[in-house]
Amino acid sequence: MTTELRVRKIMTPDFVRLTRDVPIRRAVAQLVDQAASAAPVIDADDTLCGILTQKDCFGPVLEASYYQEWRGVVADFMTEGVVWVEAGQDVVGVAQTMMTSPHREFPVLENGKLVGLLSRAAVLAALSRAG
Question: Which Pfam family, giving just one, matches this sequence (predicted)?
Fold first, then answer.
């Protein structure tokens, strides 16, 4: 049964999305307000170009707390070279990738477009229910 489970069935279709030019202060606020650990960063044509994680935000937050001023935009702090998964991918295969990856959230693409976000927690929950 688990071999039939696809990413699109367990991904989160509603999630925080950012663009490169969003002020970092606003991006941090969005992550905090939505209790999100990461947000994919997209270009104007909805193409995935990076991801902003909570870890990426510590630098600008610490700097802002020290200097009492927020500086920079998402592009200055995001992680490029994003590891992503396909919506039609088998969840078992994704779980095997997650075992060796430091990432907690994976953008989900379908036909090259961002359609969801997949967390380790969602994969673990799905596999534990199916097994």
Answer: CBS
Domain residue spans of the chain = 2-130
User: Strands (DSSP E) along the chain, which ranges?
Assistant: 18-19, 38-42, 48-53, 85-86, 105-110, 113-119
CA proximity to 116, closest of 89, 79, 78: 89
Residue range 77-124, pLDDT digits in tens: 999 999 999 999 999 999 999 999 999 999 999 999 999 999 999 999
Contacts of residues 43-46 at CB distance under 8 Å and 24 or more positions apart, as own/partner, are 43/19, 44/19, 46/113, 46/114
> According to CATH, what is the number of the domain 2-130?
3.10.580.10
